[in-house]
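[Automated response] Your request has been received and processed.

Submitted sequence:
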Amino acid sequence: MDENNKKDLTEQVEDSKISFEKLAKKNPTSSGFDRITTIILLIICVALAAYVIFGTVTAEAPTVAAADTDTSINVTTETAEAGLFQRFTRLNGEIGSDNSDVAALPDTAGTITSILVKRGDTVTKDQAIAYIDPSRPGMNYKESPVTSPIDGVITSIPVSVGETVSASSAIATIAGDKTLYIEASLPERYIGTAEVGMDAYFTSVAYPGETFNANLSFIAPTVNTTTRTSDIELNITDGQDKLKEGMFVTLDLVTEQQDNVITVPSDAITEVLDGSIVYTVVDNHAVRTPVTTGSSNESRTVITSGLNPGDVVITAGTVSDGSSVNVL
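Generated structure:
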């Protein structure tokens, strides 16, 4: 409340006081009850005037504070830069191997007298893994060794000491050093975008959070008429020492790649009647910026025109053209 209003209220209180005093003088012989009534009315009038004065001032205080409130909108941003864009096709695959397990065979029939290895042992080519006694009744021969045909790991020993075996009996099975690859099926609709040599990335539940690399090495020349897919193979370029044949993998095949292009998060783009727009930040204000878009992947979109390297793009925050913004 301004000073003039306060003065008017004060004068009204004074006038009321004078009126009550005159009333008291006009009735000098009035009873004590009338005097008490006059005093009470005077007190009520003063209290009411004080309430109006101080209550109004208090009510006006928040209005002044509200005027000082910052109206800027909090936003997050990203600086536009030219870089690599890739689009992926996600497939399921399985790890295969170009080498099969090899059996260790004896040179002659006879009785197994000793086995020198167990499952899981690593052996080298020509290492003795068992001995066989080829002796027959009335004829004694020197024990004959059974050797490993390759370097590898013993995966099974299907015989035991004392057992009689023939020259075609497997004494042990050895898994050699294998070159692993990925086998997968590519849906027909993606065949036109796939080329031998394309990069790929894959993951396995055996190694959570770890990504391995591969590249496309083979595309079958035919399409399966039942599944409408073509068989493909990919060379594994790292992780050979960790991965195992038969593992299931999730594969991301790069089906499109562009170098030196500007991309923004797809969520930063708004579709309007006359095309696509993003909001950029200029002098702490949001600026409506028309753009032309290109290819998109799961998270980003190529901007073919409308943005330059260094432009600051709003990626989160509800703004309109000209909004004052506060970059977080």
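Summary generated for your ticket: The chain has two helices and 21 strands. Confidence is low (pLDDT under 50) at residues 56-69.
If you did not submit this request, please reply to this message.
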